[in-house]
Amino acid sequence: MPASPPFLDFPDRPADERVPKAVIFGAGHGSTYPGQDSSGHALAADAIRAASQDDVALVGHWDFDLGGPLFDGRPTCCIDAGNVATAMHDNAGNRERIEAKAREVLALPAVPVLLGGDDSVVIPFLAGFADCGPVWVLQIDAHIDWRDEVHGERYGYSSPMRRASEMPHVAGMVQVGLRSVGSARLAEVEMARRYGSRFVTAREVHAQGVEAALLHIPEGAQVVVTLDCDGLDPGIMPGVAARTPGGLSYTQAIDLIAGLGRRARIAGFDLVELYPPADIDGLSALTAARLVVNAIGAIVRQA
Predict the structure, then answer these.
(1) Is 168 helix (H, G, I), strand (E, B) or coil?
(2) Which side of the chain, N or C, has fewer Cβ within a 10 Å radius?
(3) Which residues, 6 or more positions from 175, have their beta carbon under 8 angstroms from its beta carbon?
(4) Residue 244: which residues within 8 A CB-CB, separation 6 or more?
(5) How many CA atoms lie within 13 A of 85 on its CB side?
(6) Distance from C-alpha of 121 to C-alpha of 194, rounded to nearest angstrom
(7) What's the rounded Cα separation, in Å, for the pair 271 and 285?
């Protein structure tokens, strides 16, 4: 199948000598567990790009999520660099290529925006910030992802926050949207708490607003946002592999992104775990595309 057009039809390189504010790239495969098939998640980046196409002609219009046009009246300052070449079960090679791409974008310097892929792509993405630390991690997810290994694989989709906690350049993390059960056995919960991770359940956000999460982020910190689509409620994000009732609303998610942009600095953003085979009428891809738009809008507006 032919690749989707770029996100919002962004160019693949700057039109002039200016460094872009953000660079989008996709990564279909990370570290797949033995015997599992990650090909459904590999469809995500192009599904998000395709969902953005109806708004291509509207980029200069007023966006009520952002309080103005996407680029705040300035020229387009975002590019879509396409997809990193990945292959299912080439786990070490995939990690190497994803980390290299993140480092390449950060060296411009620009903000990398990764479209996954399952949650395993987050590990090399975060590793790419090693020379740009310290960074905090704001994870939006139903699960804490602190498993040490699954089927002998230490870099799979159940382990990104555990691996992040071992990275010297990661100063701390806030995990938002947690609910129900999943990769959170008692041992993982205790280890995450010993590390100092701040848990903010979905119920707390519903009761107290997004400030319940933002207050844990140091003002002015560099923050990498990792947004697992199952962090949102399946009523608006059904296209995930682990539907879990009670998740964040779209408005809560974009308020969290915007609030972070005002309180700190978004140094990187990834959106993962969209599973197009489970989507309903393209709703999840559309919601994911709007979340990426809001992330870009917040990045454009920060100093």
Answers:
(1) coil
(2) C
(3) 139, 141, 144, 161, 192, 197, 198, 199, 200
(4) 142, 179, 180, 182, 230, 234
(5) 1
(6) 25
(7) 11
Task: Tell me if residue 129 falls in helix, strand or coil.
Answer: coil
Q: Evaluate if pTM is beyond 0.85.
A: yes
Those residues of the chain that have pLDDT short of 50 are 1
Distance from C-alpha of 291 to C-alpha of 66, rounded to nearest angstrom: 11
Query: Position 58: which residue type?
Result: L
Q: What angle (nearest 5°) sits at the alpha carbon of residue 21, between those of residues 20 and 24?
A: 80
**Which of 14, 9, 26, 21 has its CA nearest to residue 270?**
26
What are the tens digits of pLDDT across the range 75-101?
A: 889 999 999 999 999 999 999 999 999
Residue whose token pair is 């938002």:
176
What's the CATH code, domain 7-301? Answer: 3.40.800.10
What are the residue boundaries of the structural domains of the chain, listed by start? 7-301
Spatial CA neighbour of 135 closest among 265, 32, 244, 8: 265
Spatial neighbors of 68 by CB under 8 A, at least 6 apart, are 62
CA atoms within 13 Å, Cβ hemisphere of 254: 17
- The C-alpha atoms of residue 176 and residue 231 are separated, in whole angstroms, by 8
Q: How many CA atoms lie within 13 A of 38 on its CB side?
A: 26
- The answer to whether 129 touches 224, Cβ cutoff 8 Å, is yes
